[in-house]
Amino acid sequence: MLFKSVNKDNGATIAGIPIGGSASYNYxxxxxxxxxxxxxxxxxxxxxxxxxxxxPTFQYGVMARSTFHGAVxxxxxxxxxxxxxxxxxxxxxxxxxxxxxxxxxxxQIGDIQFIAGYDHTLLNRSKSDTGYYTGAHVIKAGIxxxx
Length: 147
Prior knowledge:
This protein has one domain. It has no helices and eight strands. It has strands at about 1-15, 15-35, 40-45, 50-75, 75-85, 95-110, 110-120, 135-145. Strands 1, 2, 3, 4, 5, 6, 7 and 8 form an eight-stranded antiparallel sheet that branches. The relative contact order is 0.18. The model has no long low-confidence stretch (mean pLDDT about 80).
């Protein structure tokens, strides 16, 4: 899951009349990731090993939504409005399918792995004809059960 949020508040007084405004932008993305990793394990004790892994990750975006909300206040009169946008919808600007390539390192103790890695996108997720490129750089950390 990816969350981004930006908030901005401004206020002033003109001729003794209070004027204020605020804006907020939120972006939420949820994706299903299916990694296909090839790994090498070097055992340094009977129960512990270093792990190195690499391979592709197939990603399908379940939901990507951004919301914008703005508000203004002039002399005690308030107005606010908001809008939500589905990036994967029929008229959306993003392709939900992606392939990432990456790798990482870890330590395995018994059947439990503690890993950290990096993935880089291989596909342009933008549906725009303007040449705008939408990609991803993903830093990941996790705990795995090795079987």
